[in-house]
Amino acid sequence: MNKLRLLIVEDEAHIRDMIRFALERADFIIEEAQDTQEARQLIADSLPDLILLDWMLPNQSGLDFLRQLKQNEQTRELPIMMLTARTDEADTIRGLNSGADDYLTKPFSPKELIARINAVIRRTSPRISERTVELDGLCIDQDTHRVSYNGTLIELGPTEYRFLLFFMTHKERVYSRNQLLDHIWGNNAYLDERTVDVHIGRLRKILTNYDLNWMIQTVRGSGYRFSNRR
């Protein structure tokens, strides 16, 4: 099974080291940022599976950063745990009401941290805990990147694979071309909207062989939707 990638946003190096040591022993892949600026760049490069976010950070508070992430369409579904020395009940409520999926006060034990992380992942991220995505016989194994239909393997290029995975985990919602550019390539990519049409055209052509091309539906004036309803 693929290892989960966690981002620690913490300005105190010794705390980052302690957390990283514990989580790497638990078989997580760890990235680190000492402030929200570094964190923002890492998130733009590649979305982590979960963020461990300190409240008290230089330049911008973790709470403000949390609110920004939850207001951004690309990152609002990211599981986020706040790690903080603020123990007042009012602070806990502020953190949770701002969108935090859990709130752990310092000091904490590595065992409790790992247990809380696993609980958040199970509760908020079926896309992580369930590595196989299936819809009406169309199946994606995220560990092997194999795509199949009723047991028959479907050969896809890497970009078409990312499109299909995104569509199958966000079915029935309409996405504009710009939104799809952001989700597939990241918001730092400067590509023409027609790039989306090209890759969706390729994906539809492959799915035509299995009479599944109709699942990718054009919504006039808005973009694309993936649906198993004709």
Briefly say what this structure is.
The protein is 42% helix and 21% strand. It has 230 residues and is an alpha/beta fold.
Task: State the main characteristics.
Rossmann fold; 9 helices; alpha/beta; 230 residues; 12 strands; Arc Repressor Mutant, subunit A; four-stranded antiparallel beta sheet; elongated
Description:
The chain is of the alpha/beta class and 230 residues long. It has 2 domains: 5-129, Response regulator (Rossmann fold); 132-226, Winged helix-like DNA-binding domain superfamily/Winged helix DNA-binding domain (Arc Repressor Mutant, subunit A, Orthogonal Bundle), CATH 1.10.10. The chain contains 9 helices and 12 strands. It has helices at 13-25, 36-45, 62-71, 89-97, 110-124, 126-129, 158-168, 177-185, 194-208; strands at 5-9, 29-33, 50-54, 80-84, 102-105, 132-135, 138-141, 146-149, 152-154, 174-175, 216-219, 223-226. A hairpin with a 4-residue loop joins β7 (138-141) and β8. α7 packs across α9.
